[in-house]
Amino acid sequence: MTERKPYAGTTRKLVLAFDVGTTYSGISYSILDPGESPVINDVTRFPATDRVGGNSKIPTIVYYDEEGSPRSFGGEALQEAIIERAVEEGAGARWKLHLRPKDMPSIHVDDLDLPPLPPFKNAIDILADFLTYLFQCARTYIEESHANGPDVWTSFGDNIDFVLSHPNGWEGAQQAQIRKAAVQAGLVPDSPEGQARIRLVTEGEASLHYCLESRNAANGFKDDVGAMVIDAGGGTIDITSYYMISSESPPTLHEIAPAECRLQGSVFVTQRAKKYLHEKLQGSRFGTVEDIDLMKDEFDRTTKLRFSNPNDPSFIRFGTVRDRDPEYNIRSGQLKLPGNEVAALFAPSAEAIIAAMEEQRRVATQPISHVFLVGGFGASDWLFSRLKEYLDPLGLQFCRPDGHTNKAVARGAVAFYLDHRVSARVAKFTYGTRCAVGFDRNDEEHLRRAGTAIPRPSGRTVIPNAFSAILHKVGVAVSETKEFRKDFIVECAERNTCDTIATEIVCYRGNSQNPRWADSEPAMFSNLCTVHADTSRVSRTLSPRRGFAGMQFYRQQFSIVLKFGLTELEAQISWIEDGEEQRGPAAVVFDHVVEAV
Q1: Concatenated DSSP letters of 353-364
Q2: Is 53 helix (H, G, I), strand (E, B) or coil?
C-alpha cells in the first residue's frame, strides 16, 4: 500500500478519473486538501445500475433520439421502457472501438463488425456525451455522499483535474481525439490552461498503479526482478512490464518492454459466440435472428461469466419451459452447450494474451518473475486457469490482486496522478521527420531518386522523401526528462517566408534499425502531429545570402525536440533568438520543405 505525503497545494482540488471502457465504465476520485494525505474513493452509485458490472461500473451505452440528443446512458439505457422509447439505431454499444488506430493489428475486427454509429454522431461526439454524463454522476455522488456535499462541490470551483485512460495501443491521434472530446463535454476550456488540467494515462500504466495499491500485489515489485501487468478488458488486452528501481528516492519503476495491446477482450468472445450459435442452430426453429440475439445477450450476461471448466456443459436460458428442440439440445427454454465448444470461444483471446506475454518476456531488459491479472475479463475463472496452466511450468508467480479487478483502471488512474511511479518508458516505434538531404552522386540510393531532385535557392540540389530519425526504437527505457533533438534548415527566397516554421513528426513502424527513406516502406510511416513555431522576430534579423546565379535567399536553422518519457509524446521546435533558445508549441500546420543538416 502506498503511504502518501500530505498534499502540498495551497487550495482544495478535486481529481476525477474516468475509465471509459468498451463494455463498462467507472469513476474514481480524490479530494486534495492542503496538509492532508490524499485518499482514493470510488463512485459506487449510478442511476439504474443495481447488479450491473459490480457496484463501481456502468455499461458504456448511450441511446439518442431522432434529433441526435442523448436520451439515456449506462444502466438507464438498459431499462425496457427506455429501450422501447429510444431510437435503437442510436445505441452506442461498443462505439469506443471505432476510435481504435486503423493500422492496429486486428484482422478479426472491421468497422462493419461493430455496431454502426448514429448517422448524426461520430465516436468523438459519443465520447463527449458520455464524459458529460460521467461528470454529472461524479458530482451527484459527491454531493450525496459527503457531509455538506453541495458545499464541498462548490468549494472546488474550476480547480478540478481530470485523468482519462486509454488502451496501450491508442496513439497520438487517439489522444488528441480524447482531449477534443473532453473540451466538447465541457470538462475544460479549449485553452492551454484547460488542456493542462487533463492527464492521459494508458490502461496498462493505470493498472500498474492499481497493483501497487494492492496488498497482495505490491510485494511482487522488487529489485532485480520484473513484473508484468495484464489488463484484460472488454475490448482490449493491455500488457505492460516494469522493474523496480529502489536506488531512486522515492523508488520508481522503469518500463522494460514496449507496451502491448491486443484487440481480444471479452466482447470478441461474445462475437464468436453469436457466430457459433448461428451455425449450430441452423435448421432449428430457434435459429432465427431474434432468438440468436436473445441467446447471445444471455451468454454475455451469465454463461460467459460462469464458465470455468471445459469438462462441464454450459447453458444459455432464453425462453420458457415450453420451448424445446431436443435434436439441438434445447429443453425447457435453455440451450445446452458442450464445455469444450465454449472453451473454443475463449481460446483466441487466451492465445493472444499468451503471445503478448511471450513477446514481453522476449524483449524485456530484465527477467520477469510475477504476472498480475486485472480488468473485468480478468474475473473469468476459465481465463485465469488457462493462463495459470501456461505460466506455472515457467516458474512465474501469477495472481489476481485483491478487490474488484474491474475497477482497477479508474483507481489506478488516480494513483497515477498522485504518485507518478513510472519514470522511464520504452519506445514502441522510431520517431522522426520527413526531410530532404543534399544530393550525393556516390550514393546509390540518391542516384535511384535523381529524378526527384529539387534545386534549392543556395544552388545545392536535394533529394526529398528522406527520413531523419530523432528518437530510435532501441528497446531501453527512456527517462521522461530526457530530450532528443536534431538540427534542420530551411531556405527561403523571401525573408517573411521564414516567419513561421512547421514540420511533421512521423512514426516509423517497420523493422529496419536505420530507416533512411520514407518512400521505401510508405505503409510503415504515419504522421503523428505537426509542430509549429512563430519565428517572425528572428527572421527579421536574418542576413541575405547569395546562391546560384547570384540569387538572394535566407536560411533559418532550427531543431526538432522530442520528449518521449511521458504518457504522451511531446514535440517542439527550438530556435535561437537574441542568443537564447526559444521553443514553440505544437500546431496542425504544414509549411516548408526541411533538410537534414
Answers
A1: HHHHHHHHHHH-
A2: coil
CA 149, chain centre distance (Å): 33
Beta-bridge partner residues of 582? 575
Find the farthest-apart pair of alpha carbons in the chain and give their distance in angstroms, rounded: 96
Q: In angstroms, rounded to a whole number, what is the distance separating the alpha carbons of residues 277 and 336?
A: 11
Burial category of 569 from C-beta neighbours within 10 Å (exposed 0-12, middle 13-18, buried 19 and up): buried
**How would you write 162-218 as a 3-class SS string?**
EEEEECCCCCHHHHHHHHHHHHHCCCCCCCHHHHCCEEEEEHHHHHHHHHHHCHHHH
Query: 13-22, 137-146, 419-428, 561-570: which range is least confident on average?
Result: 561-570
- pLDDT of the residue at 517: 96
pLDDT score, position 589:
28
Cell numbers placing 159: 480547480
Q: Look up cell 425447457; give the residue.
A: 332
Distance from C-alpha of 285 to C-alpha of 190, rounded to nearest angstrom: 56
Could you tell me which residues are beta bridge partners of residue 173?
none
E-only strand ranges, 442-499: 454-455, 461-471, 477-479, 484-492
CA distance 200 to 238: 15
Beta-strand relationship, 160-166 and 198-202: parallel
**For residue 522, how many other CB atoms are within 10 A of its CB?**
10
CA torsion through residues 574, 578, 580, 586, sign: negative
Cβ contacts of residue 400 below 8 Å, gap of 6+? 372, 373, 374, 378, 379, 384
Which candidate, 323, 302, 322, 325, places its Cα nearest to that of 314? 302
Q: How far is CA 301 from the centre of its chain?
A: 26
One-letter amino acid of 493:
A
Q: Which residue has the cell 494474451?
A: 353
Helix or strand (DSSP H, E) at 18: strand 13-20
Inter-residue contact 100 to 106 (CB < 8 Å): yes
Cis preceding linkage at 250, omega within 30:
yes
**Position 591 pLDDT exceeds 60:** no
Q: How far apart are CA 241 and CA 260, in angstroms?
A: 9
List of residues 6+ apart from 75 with CB closer than 8 A: 46, 47, 48, 49, 50, 52, 58, 59
**Separation of alpha carbons 197 and 539, rounded Å:** 34
Residue located via cell numbers 536553422 = 557
Is 543 within 8 Å of 486 (Cβ atoms)? no
Angle between helices 266-280 and 339-363 (to 10 degrees): 150
Could you write out the DSSP letters of every residue in 305-330?
HH---TTS-EEEE-S-TT--BGGGTE
Q: Output the nine-digit C-alpha cell for 127.
A: 465520447
Q: How far is CA 268 from CA 223, 280, 345, in A?
A: 37, 18, 9
pTM of the model: 0.87
